Each structure stands twice: as structure tokens, then as C-alpha cells.
Amino acid sequence: QYGWLIRNIHANGASMFFICIYLHIGRGLYYGSYLYKETWNIGVILLLLVMATAFVGYVLPWGQMSFWGATVITNLLSAIPYIGTTLVEWIWGGFSVDNATLTRFFTFHFLLPFIIMGASAVHLLFLHETGSNNPTGLQSNPDKIPFHPYFSYK
């Protein structure tokens, strides 16, 4: 059926990946990870890269079908002062969704994950710089009993 299974696994896996990213961000907000500015900012850049990858991947199957979606995106982008029109022409390759646009989006959908992997390595590098050796926050000595007689007599 023309790759129905792999397309659905790809799309649903991407949705699950976003759920994991949102949980990761929520955990970072809860534990105050935003205080590590470099690590947090690289994480924000990572989120934007993943969102861009998802967007170009989401638009790929449209073809000429969704003129409404293309119109909405065109209107949103063209409202950006100074660069809006140029941005629209660069993203769509003009003012319509055609084969050149889909080729460009396929290229971005293929290349951006490699850029994301590099940014993830930098994200981990900065995390390592802050000295985070317990990222999950799990207790490292669960075998120790706090009220053992040894501690009582000591």
C-alpha cells in the first residue's frame, strides 16, 4: 500500500517524540534548569529546529491539495515586518506550493535531523560543563538504611 505502515510509524513516532520533548521541558522548568542559560538556550534552539523539521515533513504530503494551509502560512509569514515577503518567496519558492517547494522541504526534512544531532551534542556538552552528574535526580544510595542501629550507636 505504498508505504502506509512506515509513513504512519514515522508520523506517530514524531508525535511521541514531541510528547517526550514537552515532558523534558516541563522537567527542566520544574527543577530550575532554565538557570543554566547556555544549556537552556541551546535547548530552545533544538526545539525550534525540531519544530521546523516537523513542519516541512508535515507539509510534504500536501502537494497541491492544501491551498488553504499554504494561504494561512503565507499570510502569517508575510505579516512579518521588513522580511515577510522575502521569507514567503524563499520558503515557498514563490507564492504557490509546487514541486520545487516540495523538493526544498524534502531536503530540509532530511538535513535538519543531522543539524539537530549536532546541536544535541552541544546541548550535552554544556550540560556536562555545569557538572550535572545526576540528570534523572534519582537517589544514588537506596541500599542505605537511615535508622540502622549502627547509625544510632554512632
Automatic annotation (TrEMBL):
Q: Which UniProt keywords apply?
A: Electron transport, Heme, Iron, Membrane, Metal-binding, Mitochondrion, Mitochondrion inner membrane, Respiratory chain, Transmembrane, Transmembrane helix, Transport, Ubiquinone
- Localization of this protein: Mitochondrion inner membrane
Source organism phylogeny = Eukaryota, Metazoa, Chordata, Craniata, Vertebrata
Q: Which organism is it from?
A: Liolaemus cf. quilmes
Under the GO molecular function aspect, what terms does this record hold? metal ion binding; oxidoreductase activity; quinol-cytochrome-c reductase activity
Major subcellular location class = mitochondrion
Keyword Nucleus in the entry? The reply is: no
Query: What is the protein's given name?
Result: Cytochrome b
The Cytochrome b/b6 N-terminal region profile domain covers which part of the protein?
1-136
